[in-house]
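@here heads up, posting the sequence + SMILES for the flavin-adenine dinucleotide run so it's all in one place. Ping me if the SMILES looks off, I pulled it from an old spreadsheet.
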Amino acid sequence: MNFQPSDRAEQWRSRLLDFLQTRVWPAEADYRAEVHADPRRQPPTMERLKAEAREAGLWNMFLPGDHGAGLTNLEYAPLAELMGRHLWSAEVFNCAAPDTGNMEVLHMYGDAAQQDRWLKPLMAGEIRSAFLMTEPEVASSDATNIQTRIERDGDHYVINGRKWWSTNMAHPNVAMTIVMGKTDPDAATHQQQSQIIVPVDAPGFRIERMLSVFGYDEAPIGHAEVVLDNVRVPAANLIAGEGRGFEIAQGRLGPGRIHHCMRTIGAAERALELMVDRLLSRTAFRKTIAEHSVWEQRVAEARTNIEMCRLLTLKAAWMMDEVGAKGAKSEIAQIKVAAPKMALKVIDDAIQAFGGAGVSADTPLAELYAGIRTLRIADGPDEVHNRTIARLEYAKARPRDS
Ligand SMILES: Cc1cc2nc3c(=O)[nH]c(=O)nc-3n(C[C@H](O)[C@H](O)[C@H](O)COP(=O)(O)OP(=O)(O)OC[C@H]3O[C@@H](n4cnc5c(N)ncnc54)[C@H](O)[C@@H]3O)c2cc1C
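bot reply: prediction finished. Complex structure tokens:
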């Protein structure tokens, strides 16, 4: 394992950092003011930054191979970390979830017509998308519970179901969704589900309500509860064939999870920087807060834990490059659990350092905390990833016994 960035990776990192420092971070106040003024409109600042990023070639960096920037997961990791410092900034570079996962799915499993109709405008950043798997009525961390029906009717499929936590559904540019549901309830458990492309303007597709995260509406992205009521789409919208829903879900979630972890390290790094600046600049009981020794413990713990998680993230990324997501299953699960927990502790300490300001909207910390907290649930709760890790450990033990 060698985590020394290649010259190429270093060049990408320095170009991205320069763009973030000179164009994106200074535009944050404008972006937020525009979202606040009209949460249902794509902020003009975002469209301007997207055009500039594309022009600068800082575009689709998440996608390996010829279609994107051609970076490995290990090379992409430091870039995602930088984008994670300001959670809204990934969209500037067309590297935001869930579009990234949907693009990967269409890239790996879509046919030529699906790629032409949907992958092209997604890659160009002209439209956005959502992924509809989770359902309110069933424990969706066990995806075999998914109840939505996708039934063949001549040269169409008819879809009925209820989804929620459909991220991106408030976005003014959202045009398509990928829906997971059952095409054959009698097939073997992992062959019952399929994935199908459903445009958001298909008759019978409607948003029932928007959800909030700790009270935040997360505009302009938003998370929706969606009803699919006899939605009819051409049979050609089915991705890769009936019964391949689980296989596609696995293919999508590996990179997606690790991208979240990379961005989470960036969020923790930013929280630590804010905490340190505050501790050095505020005085209580006749000395800076930094001089009260309890803060040395907290700062040291934050630095150590960020570093440990960064190394585990890099290891998981490196393994994905070397042996694929399947071979890196345990490492991806380990960091999926470890990174948000670590970041939450760092952000929590940073909030403490800011006193009342820490829980207000005057610092980014409260919103960062809410956003990162969801990552202990989204893309599968901690317990399910720990189950994966433990089962792999038990599997290793079996040959030792025999
Ligand atoms: C902000 C946010 C964005 C999201 N975006 C999307 C999206 O775009 N598309 C989408 O389809 N979904 C999305 N989700 C949904 C997310 O993936 C699910 O919430 C998650 O998979 C858990 O499913 P559930 O909510 O049905 O919880 P349940 O399955 O009901 O589980 C509830 C709890 O049970 C416990 N549990 C479950 N299994 C085990 C186990 N084996 N051992 C011990 N305890 C266990 C866990 O503590 C878990 O949190 C999002 C969620 C959030 C919060």
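MO: The chain has twelve helices and nine strands.
MO: One more: The chain has three domains: 7-96, 126-239, 246-401.
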